[in-house]
Structures are given as C-alpha cells and as structure tokens.
Amino acid sequence: MSEARTITEQGVARDLTAFQRNILTILAEEPMYGLAIKRELESYYGDEVNHGRLYPNLDELVELGFVEKSELDKRTNQYELTDDGEAAVFDQFEWALSKVVTDENRAEDLRTLVDDQL
C-alpha cells in the first residue's frame, strides 16, 4: 500500500463519528452479527440503540472498507473488521494514548490498568 493511500485512509478513519469508532472497537474483539453489536453498544451507552442508527452506520463502515459484511444465514449478516478497520482502531488508540501518557507516572497508571484487564 502506498504511503499516500495510507494517509488518505487515515484521514477518512479520523473523520468517523464516535459511534462508528465504537462499532469498530467492538468488532476488534471478534466478528459479530448486528444484534450482538447493538447489545454491546447499548451496554456501553446505557441506553437503547435504534436499528435506524446502527445499520446505516454499519453500511457506511462497509462502504468505506473498514468492515466486511457476510451472510450467516438468510436473515442474519455478520460483520468483521478488515485490516483497514483494525488500523483505524489502533490509530485512534495510539492518538488517545499520546494525549494521556504524558509522563512516567501516567504510563505506570496505564500499565496497571492494562494488567488489571488481562
């Protein structure tokens, strides 16, 4: 992949909404069908996520090449993060870390947080 294309894709990924980035983050764990994504989002937001909000955003992420959509059965689609989608998740994570980890004390706090999650 050329550097120019990578920079362009990075720019597109950085223009995603927080809701779209949250979908990518959820899919970083494993491929899921739409209702499972909806449940994860509702757990995070503490509120109902409307189908009319979820599926257009999933479709846009598919069109942008961050998510791949496949058919599980006649009624259910599965969504999976692409390599570009994974790169978008890591780009956002790296940027956020650069703002949070500003000294060794904060780096140690982050190490503790990560260790607690594992």
UniProtKB/TrEMBL annotation:
Residues 23-88 form the Transcription regulator PadR N-terminal domain. Gene3D superfamilies: Winged helix-like DNA-binding domain superfamily/Winged helix DNA-binding domain. Coiled coil: none annotated. It comes from the Archaea. This is Transcriptional regulator, PadR family. It comes from Natronoarchaeum philippinense. InterPro entries: Tscrpt_reg_PadR_N (IPR005149), WH-like_DNA-bd_sf (IPR036388), WH_DNA-bd_sf (IPR036390).
